[in-house]
Amino acid sequence: MAYCTATNIRDFSGLTQAEISDSDLATLISYATIQLNSMINTKINRESVEWIDETRENSIDGLNTIYYIKSWQFYYLGDLDNDGDVDTSDVIVYLVDLTGIESLATVSAIDHDDGKITLSSAPASGNDISITYTAAPVDESTPDNLIKLACSQLTAALAFTKIDAK
Question: Average pLDDT, stretch 138-152?
Fold first, then answer.
């Protein structure tokens, strides 16, 4: 899923199929998505998983598979891989065992709204866990209407530039 569609852009800009194809618009939407993410999101590298509160304990006990980002109250999980979709590929979870060996955990689900990450298996007790993700101030998963508008405007501007360059 992208932040905007060719139909959104055509409705917004009045651009026709004769002026620019849906395929060319899709390429521009992908580029606009990368640009918007770089302006909107904050990348959080290897945030250490720690106790947050009674509900979000983030226990590393060999049983728990659910962990939360520290900024869950203020930010959404964002689009780390710039594909216009917020899913499990947008979170990287690192495990470090007691001997110092690092591995990647498999993320089986996320709740972008609550900053909740579910792992496919519980890390062993005593492991250190850190998470890389992007913090987004607005919902990129739905997406928020402001993101849809910004994507449409930027893509339309890029499309008009391409048309004028011919």
Answer: 96
